[in-house]
Amino acid sequence: MLALSLLIVTSFSTAEASLFANVTGDIILGGLFPIHRKGSGSKPCGKIQMEDGIQPLEAMLYAVGQINGNPDILPGVRLGVLAYDSCDNPSYALEQTLNFVKGFIAHVNEHHKPEFQCTDGSLPKYRGGDFDRVVAVLAEQSSSVTIQVAALLRMFAMPQISYMSTTPSLSSRDRYPHFFRTVPNDVNQAHAMLEILREYRWTYVSLIYSNTEYGVNGYETLLSLASSYKVCFTSPQRVDKDAFGPQDYDKVINFIRKKTNVRVVVLFAEKVSSLRVMDAARRLKLGSYFVWIGSDAWSTNNRRDFLNPQPSRRKDPDKQVVLEGALAVQPLSHNVFGFDEYIGSLGLEHEAVDPWFREFWHEYHKCDDTNPTVVDEDYDESAPRVSQETGFKQNKFAHFVRDAVYAVANALHNLYVDRCGRGHRGMCQAMRHIDGSTLIGYLANVTFKDEANNMFRFINGTDGPPRYTILNYQRSTNGSYHWHVVGNYTQKEDGTSKLVLNKEKLKYRGTEVNGFPSSRCQEPCKPTQIMIREKLDTCCGHCRNCGIYQYKVGEHTCEDCPRGFRPTKDKLKCSPIPEEFVDLTSPWALSAVAAAVVGILLTSFALSVFWLYQTTPIIKAAGRELSYVLLFGTFSSFLMTFAIIRQPDSETCAITRFGIGLCCTLCYAALVTKTNRIYRIFNNVTNSPRKPRFTSPESQLLITFLITSPELAINAIWLKKAPAEVVNSYPTRDRNYKICKGFDDSSYMIGFIYPIFLTFLCSLYAVKTRKCPEGFNEARYIAFTNYTTMLLWMAFVPLYLSSTSNAIRAVMLALSLSLGAFVQLACLFFPKIYIVLRKPEKNTKQLVMSTHRNSSYLPTSTTPIVATVEKSKIEC
């Protein structure tokens, strides 16, 4: 038994005396426990709470005694306790907390900024000085009380550790920067409850919650998370333990029963409200109709008072049947080792330690005037003690009190090592003054082994580890009722959570395993469908398929996929439409490639013939250099096919945009230069020995380059201002083409504006040179070439613009360039090649220089044409 001393002090800060336990020590831990229930009327306190009040206090005293006897924690330093009764009453708890505040003010007055002193010049002490050494307060069980206390202690930077308050709002470091708790946040509990609902596919569920901080926060958390678990809470019901009577609770149960398909009810309320809901269900004979799922407050508190009464009390089978098959979620707990023996060793002499122990003893043993088993004055040592044989059962959250004490003790030990040094024993001067702001940093990072030998640490520097036990209330074969552990819900170090249920142990009613009823408004929609909610009950509705180009957003909405995307098979998201390119195995692409290959071969053949026979009259008359330029342009036109139909990238896009206009420009620039040269020579046939200017091969190449330069400038500026890039084109909702930017909006036609102008200019010179000598007169060939090219483009442009297939557009563009090049080969080169190869007898100077029958350049005795041509060096 703890060797503790008690100081029972009367406080006259209020009209009535206030008891508190003062265990002397070098460092003091404050405590605030609901020793009594909340009173009614003007009374702040009611009946004593044996489990929820006395046990947590005794658990704290027991843990402090263990630490004081442990040489590895705060060696030579003794922890003390100052504990008050909060009566589970927020306003009364604040009055009691003021005692810690006054001690804190005295501590600040002594160690920081002295503002008060006694008449003899000494510094004042509050109640002898023990309150000055309080470094942290263990408080409280109820979330509503805890929040009030936390708001007050925050102003004085005093650490507060709760052993049972689970409301999520307490996790806010902005609002409660000095608050800690050894239990997990209710958000984790809500996840655990929803995991159970999802496991059994209970999608249509009712919810009852209390009108308190605990109940409202639990309700809001469940509601915010429900959709992600595909659970819908229909018409949640709020109960008020202070304002509701039995008829009000009956109305709540009857309202839920009217929901035909609701068979599962989630109860998120404190002990009193939970008991009254159960009583209403029992009165209405509906207790066995529902599957109840309870929160931690429901499952931990009422198992003794409501379901497992002490042997001395008469069991009520109707109450037990109400909850048969119920499931409950409670923080994972373990019995505190040695605590049962500690309680069993206590007698009335412990009143010197716990000022409320005599009241507890009388209530536990039902002592009255007719049952003098225990008397105050002459206590019989053989009287029955508190033990399991007499109905004692350790509270399931006693170990959370133990964890709170050990958290502060280990944080103080780490501070002690830093200030006093490792190996030091007893209090050092540096530990005489401990600021709350300093201890908070050590608390946030403390680690130690809990009662189950698991590593304990505060999650996010505030909450206890999220570990829960899943319980199932079952009737055994002998007719007794008990809670059975059937699973757990834990969160791993990486933040992922997992629900584990042993379904072979789960029972609903009787001995049937897994005989739970269904709780759905309707059969679930197919994975690819959404549910259209009804107006009267938003949890119910009918299923509908999303559109062909829509995907599911949640369970009730469809949205269109962005352009270029289409829904996946499961309709849960959109995936990019596969990019399409010109299929090189398609007949269209093969035709374009075949035409280009044939054209390249024919162009190479023509070039080789012109090279081999370049000294013959007909080749010389054709203008060898310009012919080579023309052949190069023709050759490039065929090569463009491979750039156009290749998979687009920035390089091929730049080549295509630059090349398709340049090829045509190069060809017609050479033709314009050629026809202009002939025109100028034969329009200047005189007796003057002076030849026309700029008719030499070098001049002709320069003129060709100058004529081509505008196209080069246009393309260069165009590429500079709008660099070539690859974009996606969507001619239809289910087609996605990867193309060069501008290919789908005909802006590529800009490159053909200048070549078209050269085509008309070339046609004009062809007409003007139609009466030149036979070997120089290519007017009809050039004219035919131009007319044919124009017809090809007139046919190509409408087809190009009207086509919705980018693949066909690319093939048409390639074929058009190839056909234009074929026309040039056929009209301008093949006639000469035919004469060179098949009619060599016509490849003479006399025949080349012979006049056309309609020629106006008739020879005279003084100015023969041959002489003029020779003078002009037209043969080069």
Folded structure, characterized:
- The protein starts with 20 loop residues before the first strand and ends with a helix.
- The strands form eight sheets. Strands 9, 10, 11, 12, 13, 14, 17, 18 and 19 form a nine-stranded mixed β-sheet that branches. A six-stranded mixed β-sheet has the order 1-5-2-6-7-8, sandwiched between helices.
- The chain has four domains: about 20-185 and about 395-455, Response regulator (Rossmann fold); about 185-335 and about 465-500, Response regulator (Rossmann fold), CATH 3.40.50.2300; about 530-575, no CATH class; about 585-680 and about 695-770 and about 780-845, Up-down Bundle (Rhopdopsin 7-helix transmembrane proteins).
- It has about 900 residues and is an alpha/beta fold.
- The protein is about 40% helix and about 15% strand.
The number of distinct β-strands equals: 27
CATH topology of the largest domain: Rhopdopsin 7-helix transmembrane proteins
Residue share in helices? 40-55%
Assign the CATH architecture of the largest domain: Up-down Bundle
Q: CATH first level of the largest domain: which class?
A: Mainly Alpha
For the record, what is the CATH homologous superfamily label of the largest domain? Rhodopsin 7-helix transmembrane proteins
Which regions are unreliable across 5 or more consecutive residues at pLDDT < 50? 1-17, 300-315, 369-381, 852-876
Q: What's the average pLDDT?
A: 81
Distance between the termini: 127 Å
What's the domain count? 4
Q: How does the major sheet shape up?
A: 9 strands, mixed
Proportion in β-strands: 5-15%
Report Rg: 49 Å
User: How would you describe the shape?
Assistant: elongated
Q: What count of helical segments does DSSP give?
A: 23
**Class inferred from helices and paired strands:** alpha/beta
